[in-house]
Amino acid sequence: MTPPAWGLNTTAVHAGRADLTDLGVHALPIDFSTTNPLPSVAGGGDAYENLATGGRPNGTHGTHVYRRLWNPTVGRFEDAVASFEPMTAHGDATQAVAFATGMAAITAVVLSRVKTGKPHVVGIRPLYGGTDHLLEHGLLGTNITYTDVHGLSAAITNDTGLIVLESPGNPTLELIDIREVARIAGDVPVMVDNTFASSILQHPLELGATFSMHSATKYIGGHGDAMGGVVITSAEHAGELRAVRAITGGLLDPMSAFLLHRGLPTMPIRVKHQQEHALALATWLTARTEIARVHYPGLPACDPHGLVGAGRQMLGGGAMVSIDMAGGFDAAQRLCARLQLVLHAVSLGGVDTLIQHPAALTHRPVAAAAKPGQGVLRISVGLEDAEDIIADFAQALE
User: Fold this and answer.
1) What is the mean pLDDT of residues 7-32?
2) What is the pLDDT of residue 351?
3) 278 shares a domain with 169
4) What CATH code is carried by the domain that includes residue 261?
C-alpha cells in the first residue's frame, strides 16, 4: 500500500518514516551534525551547489554538506507534513519546506516573490499581527494594498507578486472563500496561513492556493515545546523557498523538527477533540449577557456562505473561539485575571486552553484602523474536559 491510499490517521502516524526500517530503528532519530563528510572535492562542490540553489539530496549529491543547507531530521518532518496535502488543484505533487519559525516561513515566501520583480502584495485582513506588520513595514522591499474579496480584482496590478490571506482569520475568525480568491487571482500566487484550521480541517492547495503556510508551533507540534514554520507548495516553488532558506539561514533545527514530527501522529485526534470542546464553549458563551458577540466558524451566524456548515472549505469550525466583551477593555482585563484553569498567554493549538488580548499583544503592531477591538479576547481551546473549561469561564464571568 502506498501513502496516497492511506487514511488521515494512518498518514499522521506513518508519514515521514519510510527510511526507519532500513536504519534499523523504530523511534525517529535525530541528526545533530553541523557538518558532514564530503566524498571528494568535486563531489562536495556539486552537492553544495545542488542544495544551495534549492535542490534536495539525491543519489548523485548524497552528502548534506552543512546543516544550514539540509538536515535529514528536518527532511523527514517535511516529507510527513507534505503528505497531508499531497496534490495541488492542478494535480501537482507537493513538497514542504520547514523553517525556524512561522515568521521565517512567511518571510521566505515574500522574498521568493519579490525576487521575481513583483514587490506588490495584496493582503486580505484580518491577518496575524506579525504578518500584517511585516508586509506594511516594507522591510522586505514590498508595498502593500489591503482589501477584501470584493475589492481584490481592482487591487491587483501588473506588479502584484503575492496575495496573502488567513482563513479563519486571526483573531476574529472571519472566513474567506479561498477558492474564490484563487479564481480572482488568476496567475498571481496566493498564500494562505492555514495555522488556525490546520491540515486536518482545510487543504488550501486543493482549493487553488499556491502556498499553504503553518506556524508549526501550534497544532502540528501541539504541546507548546517546539517552534517552527512550514510551507507546503509545488516542487517548483519549494525549490525557490529552499534557496531562500539556504541564503538566509532559516532552517528548522533538528530537535524542534523531531518534536514537531512527534506531534503529527496525534494531531487528528487532538484537533477533532479540541474542536468539539470549542463548539461546546462557543455555544455556551452565546447565552452570556457579559459577551456582546461570539466569533466561531462552527456557529451558523459566523458562516453565512456555508464554508464550514456545508463543507465547502472546512471540515469543522476548528478549536479557536473569539469573544467581544460587552464591557470593553476593562471587562476583558478582569476576565483574564479571574480565570483559574485557563491560562492567560499568547500562542495557540496546544493541549491546554489559553486566552489572550490581541490588541495588546499579538496585534499590537497593526495599524489602528485594522486593530481588533479593545473588548476582543482570543481563546485557544484545549483538551481539558469541556465542562471544566465552561465552569472556569462561568466563575470568572460571575
Assistant:
1) 96
2) 98
3) no
4) 3.40.640.10
Choose among 347, 340, 354: nearest CA to 382. 354
Average pLDDT, the chain: 96
Pair 391, 340 in one domain: yes
Question: Is pTM beyond 0.85 here?
Answer: yes
> How many domains is the chain partitioned into structurally?
2
Pairing of strands 376-380, 354-356: antiparallel
Q: Which of these three, 265, 296, 331, is where a domain ends? A: 265
- Do residues 325 and 335 share a domain? yes
Based on the fold, state whether residues 162 and 234 are members of the same structural domain: yes
Confidence of residue 234 (pLDDT cuts 50, 70, 90): very high
Same domain as 345, residue 334? yes
The mean-pLDDT minimum among 61-70, 81-90, 105-114, 125-134 falls in 61-70
Tell me the per-residue pLDDT of 172-188, one tens digit each, with 9 for 90 and over. 999 999 999 999 999 99
346-386: pLDDT as tens digits = 999 999 999 999 999 999 999 998 999 999 999 999 999 99
Q: Are 236 and 116 in contact (CB under 8 A)?
A: no
Residue 320 sits in the same domain as residue 204:
no
Q: Same structural domain for residues 243 and 314?
A: no
Domain that holds residue 362: 267-397
pLDDT above 70 for 3: no
Please report where in the chains the cell 494594498 appears, as a residue.
145
pLDDT tens digit sequence for 290-299: 999 999 999 9
| Co-location of 379 and 329 in the same domain | yes
Q: What is the CATH number of the domain that holds 385?
A: 3.90.1150.10
Could you say which of 265, 285, 315 is where a domain stops? 265
